[in-house]
Amino acid sequence: MKTWPLLCLLIALSVTYASADDGYRLWLRYERIADPAVRAAYAKTFGFIAVSDSGDIVHNAARELQTGIGAMTGKHIPIVKTVPKNGRGIRLSLSGASDVTPVSADSYAISLEGGNVVIKSAGNTGLLYGSFALLRHLQQHLPVEKVVTQSKPKVQLRMLNHWDNPEGTIERGYAGSSLWKWYELPETVDPRYADYARANASIGINGTVVNNVNASARFLTAEYLHKVAALAGVFRKYGIKTYLSVHFAAPKTLGGLKTSDPLDPEVRKWWTEKTKEIYGIIPDFGGFLVKANSEGEPGPQDYGRTHADGANMLAEALAPFHGVVIWRAFVYKADPNADRFKAAYDEFAALDGKFARNVIVQVKNGPIDFQPREPFSPLFGNMPRTPLGMEFQLTQEYTGFATHWVYEAPIFKECLDSDTYVNGKGSTVARIVDGSLHNYPLTCVAGVANTGSDRNWTGHPMAQANWYAFGRLAWDHTLSAQAIAREWTQLTLTTHAKAVATVSDIMLRSRAIYVDYNTPLGLSRPWTGSHYAPEPWQNRSSRPDWTAIYYHRADSLGLGFDRTASGSNALEQYRPEVRRAWENAETCPLPYLLWFHHVPWSKKLSSGRILWDELCHRFYTGADSVLWMQKQWDGAQTAIDPAIHADVTGRLAKQYKEALWWRDAWILYLQTFSKQPVPAIYPKPERTLEEVKKSVNVYLMR
Ligand code: BDP
Predict the structure, then answer these.
(1) Which domain holds residue 162?
(2) Residue at 696 is within a domain
(3) Which among 112, 517, 589, 629 is placed 20 to 30 Å from 347, CA to CA?
(4) Do 56 and 237 form a contact (C-beta atoms < 8 A)?
(5) How many CA atoms lie within 13 A of 217 on its CB side?
(6) Is the shortest distance between the CB of 342 and ligand 1 below 6 Å?
(7) What are 226-253's pLDDT values in tens digits?
C-alpha cells in the first residue's frame, strides 16, 4: 500500500510538531525522544533523583532533572531524600570539601557508581551545573556510560550585561523591550524571570547586570532597589548574583551633594551608605559596573581624578560585603588628531597596579567597538597587575540586528585565541582573561545581552545560539565554535544528523559571509547613526570620530587607516611579534589589512588581485553566499519545526536584500575614489549611488 509511508510520515509529523515551536524553550526543549531504544534505556537508568539537601538551588537542579528526563522519556521520576535499595537513579551529592572557592563550588564531577549516576560538587551551584550537563548529554541521546566527566569553570564571574533602561527600552536591543517590568515590580514577579535564570544557569552564567551602562541614577533609589531585589530573589535560586550599573554622578544627582569628586569625604560617605543600604536589601548583591568619562557619561576625570581614583572609591564601599567593581575601559576622547584605536590603552595602561583588589577592568574584545571583525584590544597583556575582564557583545549592534544570521562564537574565539606574546609565545588573550597568565585574583567574562521581551527571547531564532555560545565559552574557552554550534543545534532545533551538520555549517560560515558583504579586508563602521544601514559617505557629526570617513579614510590614492609608524602608530601598543605580523602591508593577513594600512587601489594583494578587485570580489561573493545559506537552510526544512523554519526563511530573504544594499553602497561610494570599474565577471549594481543614499535616508527618517 503506497499510502502507508505517507500516513506514517503525517503521524510522525503531527507527533513532533503537534504545536508550532515558538522558541520560548530555547535549548531546554526536552523533546520526547523518538527512538524507543534510547527512551527505554534512559527510563531504566533514571528511576529516581536522590537529593539530601533541600536548599533552593539543589531543589531547582532536581526539579530540572525531573522535568527534563520526564519529558524526554515520558516517565515520572520521583525526587527522594535517600537512595532507594533497589533500582537505579541519579544522586546529587555535596562532596563537602573544606576549601570551597567560588570556582570549586561551581565545579562538578559526574560518575557512575553501582548503577547510579552520581553528580558531585563542593557547592550547590556545582550540583546545578552538573545537572544541566547531564541533561545536555541526554538531549543529544548519548549513552549514559559516556556521561562520566569532570568540569571546572575557567573564569569566576560569567555575566550578562543588560543595557536595559528604566522605561523599558533596551539600548541596542533588537528583540522587543526589556524583560524587566519595572512598573510592575516588586509586587508582580513575572514567571519569565525564572525561565531567564534557568537558561543562564544551564550554560553556567552566574551574574547579571540588569541595567544599562549609560545608567540612570533611578536604580539607586530605595524604590528601585526593592524592584531589583525582587529579581535578585528569583536569580539567586539559580546561582546568579545581581549587579547594577551605576551613574557616577549619583551623589550629586540623587544625593544632593555639591560634587561627585571621588576624593571628597562626603562623596565617599554617600557611596558607603548607599552600598550599605543596597546590601541591606539585597544581601548577596554582586557589585557595580561603571561606564565613566565615556561618551558623555560623568566620571572621576570631571574632577581631575583618575579612573583608579573613581574605581577605588567604589571598591572601598563594596569591600566589606565582598562586592566587586567592574570598571569599563571603553573610553575615547573627541580629539580630531587622535586615533580612537589607541584611546583605552593610553588611558588605562599607566594605571596598572593602581586599582584596589576588588576591581576588575572590563575591556571590549577589540580596541574600537564590537566591529564584525577587530584585532584584539592591545590592553590585553598590558595590565599584568590589574584583573582584566572581557566584554563581548551578544546583541548584534554591528552584525545586522535581529535580521542577519551571524553566529558569533568565531568572533569570541578569534579574540580569545589571539596570542599577545606578553610573556612569550602562548600568552593568549584567553589565558590573560582566565587569570592563568598573570594570576589575577578575580576573573570575569561579560556578554552584552541579546535578550528581550520577544517570545523567542532573541528576535532572530538563530541568535539564541550567541547567548548559548557565550555561556559555554565563558565556562570553558577551549571549546570549539563548531562543537558548540552542533551542540546548540541538537538541543534547540533537531537531532537529525544531516540537518545538524547542515545548520552548524551555515552557522560556522555565517560570520565570515557577513564580514565579506559588510566590512571586508579590515574595514570598520562604528560611525554614528543607526549602526544598521550603510552610510560610508557620512562625513558630518559633532565629533570627527563619529563620522564614517574617519574610519575608512578613502581618498584618491587608496583605502584604510594607516596605523603603522608612518601613521597613528597604534601598532606600537602591541608586542613586537604581533606588530611584525601586521605592520608590513605585504604580509599583513588580508582580514586585518585595512585596519592597519592605507592601501593603494591598484596594489596587488597576496590573493593575486589588486585591492579594488579584491574588494569587489568580497562584496559580491559575500552577498552571493547568502543565497547559499538560503539553499542550505531550505535543505534542512523537514528536520526543523515549521514555524521556526519559516521565521528564519523570512529573515534570510531580508538578509539577502540587505547584503546587496551593503555591497552596492560600499562599491558605488568607493568607486568615486578608485575610479575603477566593477570587474566584468560581476553584474554592475542596478542602482546609482544617489539611489542607494536615498534608500538609506528613508531608513534613517524620523
Ligand atoms: C557602543 C554603543 C553604545 C554604548 C557603548 C558602550 O553604540 O550604545 O553605550 O557602545 O559600550 O557600541 O558604552
Answers:
(1) 157-223+240-271+286-480
(2) yes
(3) 589
(4) yes
(5) 15
(6) no
(7) 999 999 999 999 999 999 999 999 999 9
